[in-house]
C-alpha cells in the first residue's frame, strides 16, 4: 500500500475540493458553451448541412484561442523572432519574475503612445497569461476584511482567485437595457471603506460591450469614496 498504509486507511484522508471555488465556476458562460457544442452533430470539425450539401467546418466563436484552428496562422514575423531568440542562446536562463527587460521596455514604449505621460520598464509586469495576472493582482490586493467589486455577469476566474486570496467578492449589476452599462446606484450601495478594487473589463467579458468615455467618467466619480 502507498506510504505503508493498510487497506481502508486512505478513507481517513480529508482530501475534498473547495466548494466555494466549484460554486464560482459551475454557472460560467464557458460551461454553457461546452454544453451547446457537445450537442452539435460533429462539434469541432464538420457540421452536416441539409441532405445533398457538402459539410462545412465549424469554428466556435466562443473559443478564445484562434490558433487552435488551422485557418488562423501566427504571423511569420512572430515565428521568426521566436526562432531567432532561441538560436541566439541569450535567453536560455530563468527570466526575471516580472518579465525580460527588453520585453517590458517594448510594452512601456507601446503603451506610452496613448498616454499623456511616459511609462518605463519599471511600470510593466509581464505574466504568463491572464490567469497568472489575476492571481498576482488578487494577492497584492488581499488584506484583512478586504472586498472587491465584480460585474455580474463576469468571467468566473476573478471570483475564484478572490476566494483563494481571502477577499470577499461583491457583485454590481450591469444593465442590458442600457448596453450593459454599470448600475451606478448598485455600486454605491455595495461599496464601503474595505473595498480595495473594482473590476471593469473593457471590452466586457462575457457581454462584449465597450464602455463609452462618458460612462467610465461617471463610474470613476461613483467609486471615489
TrEMBL record:
Pfam families (UniProt xref): Aminotran_1_2
Query: Where does the record place the Aminotransferase class I/classII large domain?
Result: 57-219
What molecular function terms (GO) are annotated for this protein?
Answer: pyridoxal phosphate binding
Where on the tree of life does the source sit, at the highest rank?
Eukaryota
Q: Which InterPro entries match?
A: Aminotransferase_I/II_large, PyrdxlP-dep_Trfase, PyrdxlP-dep_Trfase_major, PyrdxlP-dep_Trfase_small
Which PANTHER family does the entry mention? TYROSINE AMINOTRANSFERASE
* Protein name (database record): Aminotransferase class I/classII large domain-containing protein
The organism is: Amborella trichopoda
Amino acid at each position: 500500500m502507498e506510504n505503508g498504509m493498510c487497506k481502508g486507511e486512505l478513507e481517513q484522508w480529508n482530501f475534498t475540493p473547495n466548494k466555494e471555488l466549484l460554486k464560482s465556476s459551475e454557472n460560467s458562460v464557458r460551461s454553457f458553451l461546452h454544453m451547446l457544442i457537445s450537442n452539435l452533430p460533429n462539434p469541432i470539425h464538420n457540421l452536416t448541412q441539409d441532405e445533398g450539401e457538402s459539410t462545412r467546418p465549424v469554428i466556435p466563436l466562443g473559443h478564445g484561442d484562434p490558433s487552435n484552428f488551422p485557418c488562423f496562422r501566427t504571423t511569420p514575423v512572430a515565428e521568426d523572432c521566436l526562432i531567432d531568440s532561441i538560436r541566439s542562446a541569450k535567453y536560455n536562463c530563468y527570466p526575471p519574475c516580472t518579465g525580460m527587460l527588453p520585453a517590458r521596455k517594448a510594452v512601456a514604449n507601446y503603451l506610452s503612445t496613448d498616454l499623456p505621460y511616459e511609462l518605463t520598464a519599471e511600470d510593466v509586469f509581464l505574466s504568463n497569461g491572464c490567469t497568472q495576472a489575476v492571481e498576482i493582482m488578487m494577492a497584492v490586493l488581499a488584506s484583512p476584511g478586504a472586498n472587491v467589486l465584480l460585474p455580474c455577469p463576469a468571467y468566473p476566474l476573478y471570483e475564484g482567485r478572490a476566494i483563494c486570496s481571502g477577499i470577499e467578492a461583491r457583485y454590481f449589476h450591469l444593465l442590458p437595457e442600457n448596453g450593459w452599462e454599470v448600475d451606478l446606484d448598485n455600486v454605491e450601495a455595495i461599496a464601503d471603506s474595505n473595498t480595495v478594487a473594482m473590476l471593469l473589463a473593457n471590452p466586457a467579458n462575457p457581454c462584449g460591450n465597450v464602455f463609452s468615455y462618458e460612462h467610465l467618467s461617471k463610474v470613476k466619480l461613483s467609486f471615489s469614496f
